Structure to design on (453 residues):
């Protein structure tokens, strides 16, 4: 298969160098996205106050749940597409993209409809405080209704990343984030539209990034251009794409379902704790993003090398990236312990001592366990790139079970300490399970490859 500058073959070259170079634009893209999220929280906190932060915190797990159904599907699509790219099967690549777009079109209708129909019942189940219920609903309903714009971009981005192009999405996202921040200031501060204004700003910016990405693919990436002959639906390919997508989606949604259950416990701890946890989670997500970026890059790396049957490279890349992630975790832990309080104040815009103290406590408790989290994330996505569709779901179910235990027992007895303990304990249990499965699977695939020689 002929390639151009818009593609990168990850089956050749030094695994660590190739993975890190591929991951850098993804990391910068995620930095941009997270900086926007933090800016969004800062604008809302400074302009609309602590109650607005609380309103977002009470419904964030709900719209993140439906967002994960979208993001997870697009991530699963990329695994299948990267496999065909790695095996140099041009016809199979285009056919996979055509079938992917068919599934994506249906999914982009189902998820927003389901989200809007279930939003209020879920808010009631999570015991959203009545004095902020309408405000929270006004924000979440707009986000869910327009979530399809995010999905379009993620599908197009996933196609580019599957063929080794992580640079172009960075440039398009930079434009989108800049527009997003400008629209946030315009809609929330100048027009006074409140939380719905922030949601509209996000949706418009995501639509803009989708349009720019589509134009780029149409002009610069002929490898993925599909014609009439490619648009025939293939039952077996549809099953492969859908099961790969749903495996990722279920993994993310099971995790988010656990977060919703955990939010139920947090909502019972009072508005100040809700706002503190909302701020801490935003900062924590920014820190986690550095590790998840390497993990996402490993999914594409493993997918391409799985297609090329280069299992030796997969093991080598996994080991090298793991040690790299440990260095990153060390830096993050030091940063939070040295500057945690200043970061919380900067992000929340609050001077409430209880809010600041609890947010800092959560961060300083969780971050030392990032070494375990790195093992879990990188090994899990490597397995997914190798075609293991349901093992990560099992790990996610384990996480869900422990979050239920936390909500029903730990949080009741230990308060916010129980909430902070939840994820670290879960990471340890799931990491042990995932490592055992990874060792068994790589040995089996290596024996299979050697038998074919």
């Amino acid at each position: 298969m002929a390639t151009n500058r818009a593609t990168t073959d990850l089956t050749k070259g030094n695994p660590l160098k190739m993975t890190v170079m591929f991951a850098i634009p993804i990391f910068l893209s995620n930095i941009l996205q997270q900086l926007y999220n933090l800016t969004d929280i800062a604008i809302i906190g400074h302009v609309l106050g602590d109650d607005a932060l609380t309103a977002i915190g009470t419904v964030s797990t709900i719209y993140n749940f439906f967002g994960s159904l979208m993001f997870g599907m697009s991530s699963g699509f990329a695994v299948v597409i990267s496999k065909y790219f790695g095996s140099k099967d041009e016809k199979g690549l285009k056919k996979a993209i055509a079938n992917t777009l068919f599934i994506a079109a249906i999914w982009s209708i189902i998820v927003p409809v389901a989200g809007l129909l279930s939003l209020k019942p879920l808010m009631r189940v999570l015991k959203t405080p009545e004095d902020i219920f309408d405000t929270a609903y006004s924000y979440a309903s707009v986000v869910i209704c327009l979530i399809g714009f995010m999905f379009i971009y993620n599908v197009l981005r996933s196609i580019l990343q599957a063929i080794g192009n992580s640079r172009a999405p960075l440039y398009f996202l930079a434009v989108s984030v800049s527009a997003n921040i400008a629209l946030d200031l315009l809609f929330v501060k100048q027009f006074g539209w409140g939380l719905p204004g922030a949601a509209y700003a996000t949706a418009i910016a995501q639509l803009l990034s989708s349009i720019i990405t589509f134009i780029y693919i149409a002009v610069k990436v002929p490898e993925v251009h599909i014609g009439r002959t490619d648009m025939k639906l293939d039952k077996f390919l549809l099953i492969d794409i859908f099961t790969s997508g749903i495996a990722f989606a279920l993994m993310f949604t099971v995790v988010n379902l656990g977060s919703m259950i955990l939010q139920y416990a947090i909502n019972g701890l009072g508005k100040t704790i809700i706002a503190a946890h909302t701020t801490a989670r935003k900062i924590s997500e920014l820190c986690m993003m550095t590790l998840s970026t390497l993990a996402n890059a490993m999914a594409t790396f493993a997918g391409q090398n799985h297609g090329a049957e280069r299992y030796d490279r997969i093991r080598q890349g996994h080991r090298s990236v793991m040690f790299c992630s440990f260095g990153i975790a060390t830096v993050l832990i030091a940063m939070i312990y040295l500057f945690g309080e200043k970061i919380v104040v900067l992000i929340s815009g609050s001077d409430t001592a209880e809010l600041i103290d609890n947010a800092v406590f959560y961060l300083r408790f969780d971050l030392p366990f990032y070494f375990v989290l790195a093992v879990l994330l990188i090994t899990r996505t490597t397995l997914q790139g190798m075609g293991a569709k349901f093992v990560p779901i099992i790990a996610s179910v384990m996480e869900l079970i422990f979050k239920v235990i936390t909500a029903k027992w730990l949080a009741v007895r230990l308060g916010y300490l129980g909430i902070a303990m939840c994820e670290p304990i879960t990471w340890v249990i799931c990491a042990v399970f995932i490592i055992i499965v990874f060792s068994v699977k790589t040995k089996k695939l290596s024996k299979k490859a050697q038998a074919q020689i």
Q: What stands out?
A: The CA atoms of residues 41 and 347 lie 7 Å apart. The chain has one domain: 15-445.
